[in-house]
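Subject: for your reference before the review

Hello V.,

The reviewers asked for a structural picture of the protein, and I figured it would be easier to keep everything in one thread rather than splitting it across files. Below is the amino acid sequence we used in the manuscript, unchanged from the supplementary table.
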Amino acid sequence: MSTMNIDQILAQMRSMSIEAQNKPAAPVTSADNSDFASMLKQSIESVNEMQQTAGKLSRDFEIGDTNVSLAEVMIASQKADVSFQAMLQVRNKLVDAYKDVMNMPM
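And here is what came back from the structure prediction:
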């Protein structure tokens, strides 16, 4: 991997970091609560899309596509893994909350 590729990746990571810091957190309102199901569905679709993209890049790299570098494959794979792990933790918290609610005395 050349120094230019590493510099490009680092620059992209820095710009993504700055962009993430500049976005204000959206306040949660009662209107947002009604869209929880659609937000959850959208999050799951996003994770699925990341995993499919990582799989496609991996297959392309394996067959020798010169437009795909190992760094791109690894970054896409790590993004997919991190997003899946985050979704898994959200699911675990939702299951725990459901169990707590169901165990409450009436």
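For the response letter, the relevant points are probably these. The helical segments are 3-22, 30-33, 36-62, 70-102. The mean pLDDT is 82.

Happy to draft the paragraph if you're swamped.

O.
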